[in-house]
Amino acid sequence: MELRVLKYLITIANEQNISRAAEIIHITQPTLSRQIIELEDELGVKLFERNRQNRKFILTDEGVRFYNYAVQITELSEKSIEEFRTDSSQVSGKIYIGAGETKSIACLAQAFKKIRENHPKIEVSLFSGNAGLVCERLDRGLCDFGIFIGFKNVEKYKHLTLAQKDRWGLLTRKDNPLAKYKCIERKNLLEHHEPLLLSEQTSRHRELLHWFGGSMEKYNITGSYNLVYNASTFTKENVASCITLEGLADTSAESLLCFIPLEPAIYSEVYLAWKKDRELSKAAKLLLEEVGKNCNC
Q: In this predicted structure, what is the pLDDT of residue 108?
């Protein structure tokens, strides 16, 4: 199994058409078809369903599983090449950062801007996801750093605790009756029987769960969300208010939304983490050094 064949499979899966994929790769269609057939023979599974009517190539269930591995393998290969493709006079390469949604990402943005002043060939690749997805990429070597909010298993990594904590609150419409409060208490949510969308972190966040009284049964829970952008759209459409972190959604004067902090106040620590057994690239070390100097960690 060769790396180029994995890239062939990824291109076909993305295009869903072997003729277009062949044009992109710059090989003939029969050659590309033969490579995929040989790969299927080697694995002993069918990777694509071929639809002769519309000529679509759709991944089978086994194909989807293998596609995910292929993407990770090719990303890791490209990352390895970038790390070693540096000259002695100038640090270059790409820094890979996986992060949950947090305004503390500004700390890394400031540090990255600073190191780019002296090393303009350094680039950044940002991946957004929940703690589980960021952990997976960090453990597989696909990320140099992970940013975690209130993460209880952070001790498995080397890490810094960033100075700025994230505060929890209620994201709601400005015309919602709850918008009149300066802070939101549990009784306010219960009295108004407010529909709520909860972050998937809520059930794993001990302090936040304690704020709710240890159980969600009394509350009007409408659903959950992973990343807040889509959840805030539901709030704009007056479906439900969100329990979320401050600074993640647009609450400007032009916005329909406002953020009201919870009372008693609940804060989450924010961590910058990296693998204990992995040597960081020169570019990643520069970023880590700059974060330590300028973010009051």
A: 93
- Between 196 and 68, where is the model more confident? 196
Rounded distance between C-alpha atoms, residue 155 and residue 162, angstroms: 15
Q: Does residue 281 sit in helix, strand or coil?
A: coil
Residues 86, 92 contacting (CB under 8 angstroms)? yes
Strand, coil or helix: 219: coil
Four-residue CA torsion sign, 164, 168, 170, 171: positive
Contact 260, 181 (CB under 8 A): yes
Which is more confidently placed, 55 or 92? 92
Cis? peptide before 264, omega within 30° of 0: yes
Q: Name the pTM for this structure.
A: 0.70
Q: Name the DSSP letter for residue 85.
A: -
The pLDDT of residue 260 is above 70: yes
Distances (CA, A) of 48 to 8, 26, 30, 37, 52: 13, 21, 16, 10, 12
Which pair of structure tokens corresponds to residue 81? 């090449």
Q: Which helix (H) or strand (E) holds 98?
A: strand 93-99
Residue recorded with tokens 């994929």: 21
Mean pLDDT across the chain:
89
Q: What is the DSSP string of 120-166?
A: TTEEEEEEE--HHHHHHHHHTTS-SEEEEES-TTGGGSEEEE-SPPE
Half-sphere exposure of 226 (CA within 13 A, CB side): 8
State in Å, rounded, how far the first CA of the chain is from the last one. Answer: 45
Token pair in block for residue 174: 């400005």
Q: How many CB atoms lie within 10 A of CB 82?
A: 18
User: 3-state SS string over 224-274?
Assistant: EECCHHHHHHHHHCCCCEEEEECCCCCCCCCCCEEEEEECCCCEECEEEEE
What gap in Å lies between CA 216 and CA 222, rounded to an integer? 11
